[in-house]
Design brief:
five-stranded parallel beta sheet, alpha/beta
Length: 324
Amino acid sequence: MILMQPIPLPSTFVHRHLLGIEGLSPEEIAILLELAESYVALNREAQKKRDVLRGRTLILLFFETSTRTRTSFELAGKRLGADVINISVATSAIKKGETLIDTAMTLNAMRPDVLVVRHPDAGAVTLLSNHVNCAVINAGDGSHEHPTQAFVDALTIRRRRGDLRGLSVAICGDVMHSRVARSNIHLLNAMGARVRLVAPPTLLPTAIERMGVEIFHDMRAGLEDCDIIMMLRLQSERMQGTYVPSTREYFHFFGLDKEKLSVAKPDALIMHPGPMNRGVEIDSAVADDITRSVILDQVELGLAVRQACLDILGRNAPALPSAY
């Protein structure tokens, strides 16, 4: 099999881990987006494999269920030539009472090169990163951050609009429980977009306006003249108590349908990180509108972004010490 030459890596991305968007500079964000762009083109060719991570080991450790993120990381690792190991948390020692730090130390003793982690608790991935010698990528920690999804969304917008600067982006729905929303707010603000949050008061975190966003409690007002509409899933599994009267009433006021969409710009793009609850936060006629919806684009570009993240962290990973 003929493997294509690796894409040259920039020398100015010096982070050991990718734990969040917060703290990344606009230049660093642009570097990763440019690298991901290269992988978009590669993934559309007949020969998709590269040899850049040959001999490197990638471990996927997901404490929460995932389809898109986990599958795209696994496929990304394999296309880059890495040895990919999936750890089933449901049947692991974690279910037998092992602590997160003990798990980290156990995995560290196996000398992986990159560890991709999803965890239900905010801050857990950062804690784990402090106890391993390899690169760690945050695949979502509680309601904190989901950095690779923000890169996916930014790349999707950039390919359709050319630049993020000056765009008006409405993030709508369950912001309270959304790590995707937080990562997107950090990235969009860093790249010069204007961010609006559209949600009922019960689904907005306290003092969220301090993150540099506009707040709206009415969909039509929040979507007026918007360039981009990001819908968020109603995350009932994270809710303790009642946040909305019913899903039917929620859709009536905050679900995206053609009537609400009509106040946005005529070419406004519709996005959703998935999985979608049709008839709850988005109407099928809107989600499947091939002229406006870029939801399937987000899925395709998710692979390219995760290839870029694994490439830049995997190749930059330092050699491990002989003993630690």
